[in-house]
TrEMBL record:
Domain of life: Bacteria
Protein name: Inorganic polyphosphate kinase
Length: 299
């Protein structure tokens, strides 16, 4: 007998909760904000909206389903199952945070603060949750298959991301490495830079787009469902030992970018989750490419 679906509600600690954890009481938090020209009323209002949205979504889960909750900080320790329907209640970025830990489960994005969030990934309102859950659990339910990017190291470490993967030095140092296409006989260029960014069409609304605009790149930005990635080297430094001829490009299906570390330490993280990063040392190699996994975002 197959298990009933499980609704997994993904959320994050609100600013109000963080303030209470830091200052102890509502009054102390209000005093702290007022000393910086802010009112706690708006922060408390948004906290209330988020809690109400969570309660509304939880109430919309069918009675025969199982239900669980996971906070953003615990995602890397949470075990998702194949029968899960993942409901992200919060901001667009929270969908990206959850995506790297999934393997094909349908995702429903619920916007807790319409008008404040762009709504690129959290496209729906709490009152639509019941219908969306049924649709997500139905075979052939309508969903956008959003392209993801992956980094695979030579020691089998693997990292997935929905928006972008960044490879670079810890802190504000310089990363040294060799960069080139992942193809037999392809030349690799030694480089010194502040890092390499490889992004998807979903990421083209954020960090990737800022680099694309800064470079005035003629490469067309991919759409979220396009099987295409763009990559840029940040602040490559020309010297007698390092070059700047390979600083941007495009990766299609079956293509990859290979980076070999030539410094003591390089970190690799996705979608801003620095706490869940790969660490590579001298001589290690990592390949970046389109992932076989995609994010199934319920429409």
């Amino acid at each position: 007998m197959s298990l009933a679906p499980r609704a997994v509600l993904v959320h994050r600690t609100t600013e109000y909760e963080e303030l209470l954890a830091r200052h102890g009481t509502h009054g102390q938090a209000a005093f702290f904000l007022s000393s910086r020209g802010r009112s706690i009323d708006e922060v408390a209002r948004r906290h209330g909206q988020t809690r109400q949205a969570l309660a509304d979504v939880a109430a919309a889960v069918p009675l025969q389903w199982r239900q669980s909750r996971v906070e953003r900080a615990d995602l890397d320790r949470f075990l998702f199952g194949p029968e899960d329907v993942v409901v992200v209640v919060g901001q667009d970025g929270l969908v990206a945070n959850a995506a790297k830990y999934l393997s094909g489960q349908p995702v429903v994005g619920i916007d807790t603060d319409p008008g404040r969030n762009p709504g690129v990934l959290v496209r729906h309102r709490p009152q639509d949750a019941a219908a969306l859950l049924r649709a997500a659990a139905s075979p052939g339910g309508a969903a956008d298959e959003l392209t993801m990017v992956e980094a695979v190291a030579d020691d089998t470490q693997r990292l997935l991301a929905l928006n972008e993967i960044y490879l670079g030095p810890p802190g504000h140092q310089t990363a040294r490495y060799r960069l080139g296409p992942d193809a037999p006989g392809a030349a690799a260029e030694p480089q010194a830079s502040s890092g390499v960014l490889v992004g998807t069409g979903t990421g083209a609304t954020g960090w990737l787009r800022s680099l694309w605009q800064e470079r005035r790149s003629e490469l067309p930005l991919p759409a979220p469902t396009d099987p295409r990635l763009l990559w840029f080297v940040r602040e490559a430094w020309p010297s007698p030992a390092t070059g700047t001829s390979l600083v941007a490009g495009e990766l299609g299906s079956g293509q990859g970018l290979r980076l070999t570390v030539e410094s003591d330490r390089v970190v690799v993280f996705g979608d801003g989750m620095e706490s869940d990063a790969l660490e590579l040392t001298w001589g290690q190699t990592v390949r970046l490419a389109i992932s076989a996994n995609s994010l199934r975002l319920t429409v």
